[in-house]
Design brief:
Three copies of one chain form a homotrimer.
Chain A: H1 11-19, H2 35-53, E1 66-71, H3 77-88, E2 92-97, H4 105-118, E3 123-128, H5 133-140, E4 144-150, H6 156-170, E5 177-181, H7 188-199, E6 203-207, E7 223-225, H8 228-231, E8 237-240, H9 256-263, H10 267-270, E9 278-280, H11 293-296, H12 303-329
Parallel strand pairs in A: 1-2, 1-3, 3-4, 5-6, 5-8, 6-7, 8-9
Helix pairs in contact in A: 1-2, 2-6, 2-12, 3-12, 4-5, 6-7, 6-12
């Protein structure tokens, strides 16, 4: 979409961010982070965005460092994004992809990580189907740990790239109304988004059928709606979650067709949205299912910008945790 | 094989090549290319061949560029060759290997490529089982696209390395008689070879059983033969295609043994060939099937030279498309 | 474990090592190597250990060289260790992992390697389920060959890292008593350990049930025992082999539980061991099976040190074979 980039970020936060010193050597989830910390990552990412626009897309800060992509679940997008980000910072990257074994997962994870650490790994980027896996790791090894998705808990770099994308276009998240639509119950993206967005001042509404809503949602800092048609007119940003067929059990909705009818983002439905609504999707898209192709490729879509920004955000996170580790060492 | 390297390349072409300016940011097929363009790639490859002979096998022209190996079909040889070529030019390489999903392939391919592009990929090397996949990509993304094999259409870098190998030994392709033997119908190598060889002045004969000949072969700039024994005595170069068991359906020949009997390159058959015939094979070899081991490893075989030259040719192609993209940008 | 590092290595050997000139461009097994050669590798590894402790973990000696990881058997640990070692020496690494095809393995292996060589590979790190595979390769290609495990024969870099770890802590292997416990018959680690340890002056005892002992063990330079309880009190080092379920056929022991009872390294059994015994394991550990968790993580365990040292040893081996190849060329 064509748009003017407004750089009217809340100046108060920015000033705070100047004095702020990043001190975490792990990034496990956005629930733990303050608004200042999130803003600091976003500001750092803005700087790194330049690197990717250069003809020689390389910066030296992680030269001689080793990043391991420790993925116990399939992923190409997030894995490649971290690999490229590490690469761009001149780190070496080791790909370590395997299915979690069915027994004694905790032990396997820990032994695997300890072994990698013994080989002199500096940063572990970990995805695991057990919630809390990255936190468990961070308590047991000395390397920096970045959570690239743990169970249904968090996927913090996705949350960060989402707020980065919104902030870049809207200038600030303060006071924005944001809908997150779909299978909230099984979405770590929804959780990380929720923490980042609300901490930066947005109002978040989870939208989906009751069967796909999280348990004890009333304890979360969000509104809830079972009707997309009621919400679509009011929001500044809409984030359409992917229907993850591989995670659905127990027939949470009668049919795909019915789901699309009530919760899909169609051209028809978009007619009632604000003209400058941002349409987001964490990818990969099921075209014609949770979102129609015309909308995914339309003027309000920022789906590919999200991918581009993901690289800058991941460079920032790799850079910051490494810096914190270096300061804590000496 | 021991031989004198004749450097008596057609000087007219060479002079043209000097004035010539490469302008394509994609390499999709050799059908599109002029003799000048093909010669220009070969001349560029000659320069890069030196790099691989150095003790430090590195040149800097693609430093900070990202090449993605986007392979929807299994490949180790071509994939590794491109990876090494990219590496040798100091590019970073991302491996992205996946089976084409059974539904909506076009969309998947496009979404995948758009995502990679959004991550700042500069060059996409793509192999896909759908003919025209690379052309489709080139029309829809801004990155450079290199076809590493699309369906039964083209495999242009294989064609280039084949003519490179012949030119290096024979000096020129002008007037040479070349037989391409085997499963022509399912061979993208045969097609790319045909275009490159005929454009450079060679006379090409497709040899194989009628069931493995292409439809409408009479429209192609080649001769046809169903009898290897009639052809073997006359040709300067013979390219033995691999029997691709995985692609054969409908029993195109009664038995492997019968196929080998009529179309295999045996020691016996070689006795009637010219003494300086070049024996080529795109690999991997089915020893004892389309070619006997003694012939594959014999003095006329240039099969391993083809592999070596493939690296130089791929370096040249990566270098040229990147240069064209840079010129078109600024 | 807390310990004083004694650097009282046998000075005689060290002096010899100074005059010594490494001349092998392949590392196929430790059976072939003299004590001087083994010591020379260990001394070289000591130097490289520093590189891994630097902030920028890079040294330039293999810049522009290409190392291929040619693994026909699954491996993450050894493969990653070689990749990191190559990386740290600034080499480029190509990953080539595939299951050995069921037919004509020899040919496939050779053709694969010849192709890689034709692409300008400098060093092939090969793991294959056929004993002698690396030796076969070394006789047929010009690149350097490093055996990363061949059948039940040898795994020389594991043997080297084991003696490196012992020497680093105990100062010397001369006169040490070492037990290697478990499935000796199917263990290439046991064989490489045996050669390295005995050549450096240690006394090695193989311990395990008779069904898991090697044939013609009386021809080997080791003692044998079928009773861990008889051996545990006397040894300075105990190396617990992994039970490799995937390799066991024919029910070599009545049950896992019974195996653990007689041959597992338990807390109970450790009470009768020397207080400064070194507990080793080549990994990955089956916790609670051949070794109890408390022992694996206990103060006598050097299991993670082995992993760390593996990197230094592999850097040394890559460095030395490359140097020998360069000297033999010019």
């Amino acid at each position: 979409m064509k748009r003017k980039v407004q750089i009217t970020t809340t100046m108060a936060l920015k000033r705070k961010s100047k004095q702020f010193k990043w001190q975490r050597k792990h990034l496990l989830g956005l629930r733990d982070l303050s608004a200042e910390e999130i803003t600091y990552i976003l500001d750092t990412a803005t700087g790194f965005e330049q690197v990717s626009r250069r003809s020689v897309k390389k910066a030296p800060p992680l030269r001689g460092k080793v990043v391991v992509n420790l993925f116990f679940e399939d992923s190409t997008r997030t894995r490649n994004s971290f690999a490229l980000a590490a690469n761009r910072l001149s780190a070496d990257i080791i790909e370590f992809t395997k299915k979690a074994s069915s027994v004694s997962k905790g032990e396997t994870l820990l032994d695997t990580a300890r072994n990698l650490e013994a080989m002199g790994i500096d940063i572990v980027v970990v995805r695991h189907n057990a919630g809390g896996a990255s936190r468990f790791l961070s308590r047991n090894i000395k390397a920096c740990v970045i959570n690239a998705g743990d169970g249904f808990c968090e996927h913090p770099t996705q949350g960060l790239l989402d707020v980065y994308t919104i902030r870049k276009i809207k200038g600030s998240l303060d006071g924005l109304k944001i809908a997150i639509v779909g299978d909230i119950a099984h979405s770590r993206v929804a959780r990380s988004d929720m923490w980042a967005m609300t901490k930066l001042g947005a109002e978040v509404t989870f939208v989906g059928p009751p069967t796909l809503m999280p348990a004890q949602a009333n304890l979360l800092p969000v509104k809830m709606s079972y009707c997309l048609d009621e919400v679509i007119e009011k929001v500044d940003v809409i984030n359409m979650l992917r229907i993850q067929f591989e995670r659905l059990g127990g027939n949470p909705f009668p049919s795909i067709r019915e789901y699309s009818h009530y919760f899909g983002l169609t051209v028809e439905r978009m007619k009632r949205a604000k003209s400058d609504i941002l349409v987001m999707h964490p990818g990969p898209i099921n075209r014609g299912l949770e979102i129609e192709s015309e909308v995914a490729d339309g003027r309000n879509s920022v789906i590919l910008e999200q991918v581009t920004n993901g690289l800058a955000v991941r460079m920032a996170v790799l850079f910051l945790v490494n810096q914190a580790a270096a300061q804590q060492k000496g």
